[in-house]
Amino acid sequence: MMEYQKILDLPKQTVDKNKSFITKLKRKKANSIDDMFHEKHEEVFEDIDCLKCGNCCKTTSPIFREIDIKRIAKKQKMKAVDFIETYLRIDTDGDYVLQTSPCAFLDQEDNSCTIYDYRPLACEGYPHTNRKNMYQILDLTLKNTEICPAVARIVTELEKATNMDRPKPRTQDGRG
Ligand code: SF4
Ligand code: SF4
Questions:
Q1: 123: Cβ below 6 Å to ligand 1?
Q2: Which residue, 111, 136, 142, 153, is the most exposed by fewest CB within 10 angstroms?
Q3: b/e 54-84 (16+ beta carbons within 10 angstroms → b)
Q4: Nearest 5 degrees, angle CA 136-CA 106-CA 51?
């Protein structure tokens, strides 16, 4: 059982709030949201240890670009075609992805990546919450709240923080 499963089990109310938060973010100026994501990313990853999780490698596949395939196959002393034949398939978007999950390169004893130094770029960047132009991947980020406990925490905490910033509506009798 993944150590951080509890973080992923967000109550429905939180899931709904996060969804509308992401929708609101889409209306903001394109590059105005990067800083808040990056700051929260640093904060959350001080607490969450990927080696105690591994959920991304266990449940989803990165995209393998041709350059990734060539590099990894070479290191594995395999021909690229054999590497593809053994590990990859083409998904509905036409990208190379893993045939099976968990990833064949995940050491399930300690959640380490056995090809860490030459892993696909997509793995290197995951969960993509510290990259530039976050506005381009808001839907993906919302989806990742179901996979990555760090993303679940980042989005939930950002939603809460922006909610607190907003002035509370006054009640009818004006006592606030
Ligand atoms: S290549 Fe490594 S980092 Fe990428 S999914 Fe597989 S185990 Fe995880
Ligand atoms: S990136 Fe997210 S899902 Fe992947 S191991 Fe780290 S915390 Fe877990």
A1: yes
A2: 136
A3: bbbbeebbbebeeebbebbbeebebeeeebb
A4: 75
Q: Per the omega criterion (within 30 degrees of 0), is the bond before 102 cis?
A: yes
Q: If the chain, 176 residues long, is cut into consecutive pieces of 10 residues, what is the mean pLDDT of each piece?
A: 89 97 92 93 98 97 98 98 98 97 96 98 98 96 98 97 71 53
What's the pLDDT at 176? 46
Give the binding-site residues of ligand 2, using a 6 Å CB cut-off.
48, 50, 53-56, 126-127, 147-150
Q: Distance, CA 60 to ligand 1 centroid (Å)?
A: 10
Do 119 and 65 contact (CB within 8 A), yes or no?
no
Gap from CA of 176 to ligand 1 centroid (Å) = 51
Q: What is the pTM of this model?
A: 0.91
